[in-house]
Amino acid sequence: MIKLIPLVPLFPLLGFLVNGFFGKKLSKSLSGSIASIAVLASFIISVLAFIELNGSTNKSNVIDVFSWINAGDLKIPFQFLYDNLSSLFLLIITGIGFLIHVYSTGYMHDDEGFSRFFTYLNLFVFFMLLLVLGNNYLITFVGWEGVGLCSYLLIGFWFKNTAYNNAAKKAFIMNRIGDLGFLLGIFLIYITFGSITYTDIFDKAGSVPTSTITAIALLLFVGAMGKSAQLPLYTWLPDAMAGPTPVSALIHAATMVTAGIFMVVRSNIFYSISDVASETVAIVGGITALFAACIGLLQNDIKKILAYSTVSQLGLMFLGLGVGAYSSAVFHVTTHAFFKALLFLGAGSVIHAMGGEQDIRKMGGLKGKIKITFLTMFIATIAISGLPPFSGFFSKDELLAHVYEHSKALWLVGMLTSILTAFYMFRMLYLTFYGKFRGTHEQEHHLHESPPSMTFPLIILAILSALGGLLGLPEFLHLPNWMHHQIGEVIIMKGKSLITLSHEVELILMCLAVAAAAASIFFAYNLYLKNKVLPVANESELKSWQRLIYNKFYVDEIYEALIRKPIDAVSDVLYKYVDVAIIDGVVNGVGSAVKGVGSVVRLAQNGNIGFYIISMIMGIVFIVLFTLLYR
Amino acid sequence: MLSLLLIVVPFLSALLLFVSKSKSTKQISLFSTIITFGIAVAAMFMVKHNPNTNLLQLDLNWIPSLGIHFNIEINMLSSLLVLLTAFLLPLIVLSAFKNEYANEHQFYGLMLMMQSALMGVFMTNDGFLFYVFWELALIPIYFICLLWGGENRAAITFKFFVYTLLGSLFMLVGLIYVYNHTNIDGMKSWNINALYEAGRSLNADQQGVVFWLIFIAFAIKMPIFPFHTWQPNTYVNAPTQGTMLLSGIMLKMGTFALIKWLLPLTPIGLQDCGHTAIILSVIGIVYASCIAIVQKDYKRLIAYSSIAHVGLISAGILTANQQGLQGAIMQMLAHGVNVVALFLIADILLRHTGTRELDKLGGIRNMNGNFAVLFLIVVLGSVALPLTNGFVGEFLLLSGVYKYNAAIAGFAGLSVILGAVYMLRSYQHIMLGERIDNHNTFGALATSDKAVLIIACIAIVAFGIYPAPLNSMAEQGIKELLAIIKPN
Predict the structure, then answer these.
(1) Strand partners, A485
(2) Is A76 helix (H, G, I), strand (E, B) or coil?
(3) Which residues pair with A136 in a beta bridge?
(4) Cβ of B472 under 8 Å from any chain A Cβ?
(5) Is A281 exposed, middle or buried (0-12, 13-18, 19+ CB in 10 A)?
(6) Would you say A367 and A381 are in contact if contact means Cβ atoms under 8 Å apart?
(7) B 369-388 residues with CB < 8 A to A
(8) Most distant CA pair in chain A: distance in Å?
């Protein structure tokens, strides 16, 4: 089965081609089925290959596809690496990808761009699979930019809306800023190692000067900041919510945005060697986690809340990576993929029921009307808030224990983030599902549970969110931590990823985390359920610090004023003054000067032969004198 | 023989058109260019599999007393440029089908003339003949711009003509200077290898002077900042096919000549002065990209984007390493296809809506989805998205520049971001959003336009996914060239 791995990305590619060329002629159900089955086929192969890999002693399989780019000593084959890391990501991408395809057949059912949607979605899965399967940085980069393209296409899916188009463009360009860093990192790797193939270079990293490794790690991390929406390159992700909700679930929560984490884990040896780089990753991650969680507190758009939550959770994962807890970060990627995909799909179901409404101030009391959506979202909310025994509890707890060991200050940041997370998630839950309905009469009449194609993925994801913790049970309680062993295989410098805390400390940390989350939820309960506080309708009623948060710390406005406008202004000056006036002015000036000289010299050509002869004689005399004097 | 055919077939076809004034001018032109393309493909296969055949080269004694030969050869590198020329000409001819040009037999004839001269420029191994073809190529394009250009064409074309002619004279001086140092059995020679040898025998100061004399000619042709100001006006004013010839192929005369006629000629000059030239090239990348962002006319925007692209190509060449040079070749091929497609799109916009102003366009995707897809693929090739043809060249170019100097590569790499800014911004302006009232119907694309765009898109994707056939030739050719430049 492992030999068949190239089929995994091939199926979605075929699905893309079929829907891309013939989608308009196919019926909706056929078009949706083709796309879904393509991903399902990939999932089945992924599962079978995964089983084979686990039973095999060879944990690192290199599969050649074809020779791609050769330039002297730079050889870049189109080659896949199937190991414990890529096999796990394959399962996440195709598994959740399939569920979201199924969900989309219901969610997008009445959209005129139905087949176009599945075309893009299949293309996305293809590129995402390339990203995790590549055996060198360039194949990963191909997937990396490819998913960026699909993200662009899907954010701007409803292309008549200028705001959506702007959001799409912003996502693409901001990602390209990160991509440049990634690209420069690849060049430095090539210069340093003479290769960019994973299986060639990682073993040699120890013999390279640490300063070079630091530079490589930091450049790669710039790429990760773009793709995984970390400070300062995160503002595209909340805007990306313009895309259809299944897209938010698949691309902007479960898979694409975790590419940065994948890449850092893949390159773990660089971060293990360079303390500067790993500290940077931890600090950026920590700040992003807390910063985004703060913004999440006061948002009223259900998808925006989840978007900031995603940014924040990604920050937590980077915090874990920075302290060397690679397997914990991957564990959190996995559980996060379950519960955040579920939250987005649930939000989609809510929006579906509400006839397109996304403002939680206009919801309320949906609990009884859309029971499956409510129950599944409830489970996801508990999972993300870190209450046992649901999945988020295990992954977050393990991650924060690592952070505690490394730095108490960063642990505090992580804890604060968790507390805020529990609060804003339950705020969302209470305002959406409890209390009285606050929408229009018409909406209330319209409320209905979504079709089975949409609720089926919700239920599966709810089960996964509830039980996902089994993948990584706490080792200090002498329980098996499967994830740790799985990812441990790809971690080259193992020392950093072991916890040396005493069991008592770990237990205390665990209880502390649960207590803090519970207190935070209780606070939200008091506020929104007991005292029935509602978010204010007008921004002007907010206190000034609230307004700061509500307006996302004005980061977009700051970027606009400090980056976009200056670039436009400078470009305008370059064009109008430097290019047209100065440079071209000089060229034209030279032209006119020549013309001017010509018009003067022209007077000498007066047709008078006497004048010519005299000039000639004077010239000869001059030359003779000149040569005599200078001999 | 094959090499001569590549010059003769378009030349005779052009004469036929001039003389016969046939009503089926378009068909004859298309037929001729397709034949030429077939010959070019055959030649390429021969270079690859049977390079020693004498079908590929021709060496006739032309002016023995001056050591001038009529010497043309198709080798690894020249075959790629020949292929590009032969591939683009049918597309350019086809793209003209929907335009009704006055005296069309002359128009098409001049295009074929141009092809003939371009083939000569790429194939010749004789310095004097190179200069002759170089100038010959200027004449047809001069008339194409002058006779079928837009408003104000006389002044703009005049400036273009004088500017490039001036550059060529510098080159001629440089070449004659080197020629005077040649010595083949006591005779002077224009043969390329004799020139290489003579050039390398010069001391550092002499090589520096020769480097600048010749570089300026090529810098104007490409054009490189700050010698570029003739370009935007000329591109905008020329008829679409003229712009395509200028940007798609003629620009490559400069970049290819840089590789073939400058680097091996003055290796020390390159070491001493190359750095300045690289800096100029790289400034041009960012400078032109910024200016492209604020353009309102789509054709002018592409003109500036072309300056940015060629700046990176030039920088890659001047690094004189395998990746930079090979990337330059690959990017020349990609840029040729992409820019021709982009200028056709600008022309389609003008024909269908009466304007190329971004502010007056919008929402065309609502009216023609297929056009939107084709346009998008061309845009993606142009911003060098992986798995499009633009990526292979850009990646190799940047890695070559990075090898030379990391900071310069970082600066040049800004084009990765800025390119996305101006290409996506303009695409959004033109295609997305609500439709704009003044052109409620966009209509279907003409068959000829559609054919050109589809062929271009296939090339963009195919050579992005599987560049190996062309890339291996570029690799081989550059290796051979580097063996001459850096013998150790």
Answers:
(1) none
(2) strand
(3) A197
(4) yes
(5) buried
(6) no
(7) 380, 385-387
(8) 116
| Sign of the Cα pseudo-torsion (A385, A389, A395, A401, in order) | positive
Mean pLDDT confidence for B255-267: 93
For residues A379 and A366, what is the distance between their CA atoms, to the nearest angstrom? 16
A469, two tokens: 């913790």
Domain spans, chain A: 341-550, 558-629
Residues A255 and A128 sit within 8 Å (Cβ to Cβ): yes
Helices marked H in A134-273: 137-155, 162-193, 198-201, 210-227, 236-239, 245-249, 259-266, 268-273
Rg for chain B, CA atoms, rounded: 21
CA distance B96 to B448: 9
Cβ distance B304 to B295 under 8 Å? yes
Please give the mean pLDDT across all residues of chain B: 90
Find the helix or strand (DSSP H, E) in which A67 lies. strand A60-71
Asked if A423 and A523 touch (Cβ cutoff 8 Å), the reply is yes
A211/B contact by beta carbon, under 8 A: no
Give the residue from chain A lying closest to B365, CA to CA.
A159
C-alpha closest to that of A153 among B379, B213, B384: B379
Q: Quick one: tokens of B280?
A: 């100029």
All structural domains of chain B with their residue ranges? 273-278+285-488
pLDDT confidence of A422, banded at 50, 70, 90? very high
Angle between helices B298-318 and B230-237 (to 10 degrees): 130
Q: Is A163 on the interface with B (CB under 8 A)?
A: no
Cα→Cα distances A88→A62, A68, A85, A120, A391, Å? 16, 26, 5, 23, 17
Which residues in chain B (42-101) have CB-CB distances under 8 A to chain A?
Answer: none
CA distances, B214 to each of A586, B172, B393 (Å): 21, 8, 25
Helix, strand, coil % (nearest 5) of chain A? 80, 5, 20
- Rounded Cα–Cα distance for residues A324 and A444 (Å): 50
Residue A594's contacts (CB-CB under 8 Å, 6 or more residues apart) are none
Residues of A in contact with B417 (CB under 8 A): 173, 176-177, 180
Task: State both tokens at A64.
Answer: 């050649």
Does the beta-carbon distance from A160 to B295 stay under 8 Å? no
Distances, alpha carbon B337 to alpha carbons B70, B245, B381, in Å: 30, 11, 9
Question: pTM for this structure?
Answer: 0.91
Q: What pLDDT, on the 0 to 100 scale, is given for residue A178? A: 92
Q: Is A190 in the B-facing interface, judged by CB distances under 8 Å?
A: yes
Predicted pLDDT at A143: 93
Cβ neighbours for B258, distance < 8 A, ≥ 6 positions apart: B215, B218, B314, B317, B318
Q: Which long-range contacts (C-beta less than 8 Å, at least 24 apart) are formed by B404-407?
A: B404/B278, B404/B319, B404/B321, B404/B324, B405/B278, B406/A184, B406/A187, B406/A188
| Residue pLDDT, tens place only, B426-466 | 999 888 887 766 656 788 889 999 999 999 999 999 999 99
User: Cα separation of B430 and B349, whole Å?
Assistant: 9
- Reading the block at residue A616, the tokens are 């000639």
Hey, which of A510-524, A564-578, B436-450 has the most confident mean pLDDT? A510-524
Residues of chain B with Cβ-Cβ distance to A177 below 8 Å are 417
- Give the max Cα distance, chain B: 75
Q: How far is residue A422's CA from residue A525's CA, in Å, rounded to a whole number? A: 11
Are residues B365 and A159, on separate chains, in Cβ contact within 8 Å? yes
Closest to A262 (Cα-Cα) out of A210, A193, A211, A332: A332
B54 vs B77: CA distance, rounded Å: 17
**Calpha distance A173→A418 (Å, rounded):** 31
The complex scores an ipTM of 0.91
